[in-house]
Design goal:
Blueprint (H helix, E strand, L loop, with lengths): L1 H13 L2 E5 L9 H13 L4 E4 L4 H11 L6 E4 L2 E4 L1 H10 L1 H9 L1
Parallel strand pairs: 1-2
Antiparallel strand pairs: 1-3, 3-4
Helix pairs in contact: 1-3, 2-4
Protein name: Glutaredoxin
Organism: Sphingomonas cremea
Family: Belongs to the glutaredoxin family. Monothiol subfamily.
């Protein structure tokens, strides 16, 4: 598990904004991932994605890494932000815009 944790850690720390999701930005594989991508696209912030469906170790490991049971998961500057519901709440309140703009 430490190898997976190291891989996830490297992804989280090497990208200012990274979304672990099901599918890709062009073809999200679940509604929650689609909503998360739409929010980030609307903000106009550059972000990386990791398709957890392509790597079962990452899919399971990200849940342990964040201690969060669901996907998608958003990280900004190495910090776990949350899933799509939290992203939506933060977007609606303006918090997410502030977070990504402050970090970008």
């Amino acid at each position: 598990m430490s190898d997976v944790k190291e891989r996830i850690d490297a992804l989280v720390k090497s990208n200012d904004v990274v979304l672990f999701m099901k599918g890709s930005t062009l073809f999200p594989q679940c509604g929650f991932s689609s909503r998360a991508v739409a929010i980030l696209d609307h903000l106009g912030v550059p972000f990386e994605t990791v398709d957890v469906l392509q790597d079962q170790e990452i899919r399971n490991g990200i849940k342990d890494y964040s201690d969060w049971p669901t996907i998608p998961q958003l990280y900004v500057k190495g910090e776990f932000v949350g899933g799509s519901d939290i992203m939506m709440e933060m977007f609606e309140s303006g918090e997410l815009q502030q977070l990504v703009k402050a970090e970008a």
